[in-house]
Specification:
Number of helices: 0
Structural class: mainly beta
Radius of gyration: 13 Å
Helix content: under 10%
């Protein structure tokens, strides 16, 4: 059974950068679309973006577009979330999730489309 595990969270200053990793185990990454979501205290989990397995295309929510980049290395079974120009409102627990097969671009970043989740990694952006 496929599992995912996030790492790389840390505390950074506004304007800083972080790279999160999501390691997939139990199956080959190439079969899965991977989504990133986040949850801030007192708020619902929201989608950040995703990378599809079918064509390696990526999609981002407007709040992170132009600052965050998702990439994948199928040989290492790992997906990355590069976060630049971080803002205090990016503070949250970040989760990756896996979904076998294809997802339509319009729903690829939605947390509702995923069933396999990691434990999350904390990102704190503060002066």
């Amino acid at each position: 059974q496929v599992q995912v595990a996030e790492s790389g969270g840390d505390s950074v200053l506004p304007g800083g950068s972080l790279r999160l990793s999501c390691v997939v185990s139990g199956d080959a990454l190439r079969y899965y679309t991977i989504g990133w979501s986040r949850q801030a205290p007192g708020k619902e989990r929201e989608g950040v973006g995703c990378i599809r397995n079918s064509d390696l295309s990526t999609y981002y929510e407007d709040s992170v577009k132009g600052r965050f980049t998702i990439s994948r290395d199928n040989a290492k079974n790992t997906v990355f979330l590069q976060m630049n120009n971080l803002k205090p409102e990016d503070t949250a627990i970040y989760y990756c999730a896996a979904r076998a097969g294809r997802l339509l671009p319009s729903v690829c970043a939605s947390p509702r489309e995923y069933r396999t989740w990691g434990q999350g990694t904390q990102v704190t952006v503060s002066a």
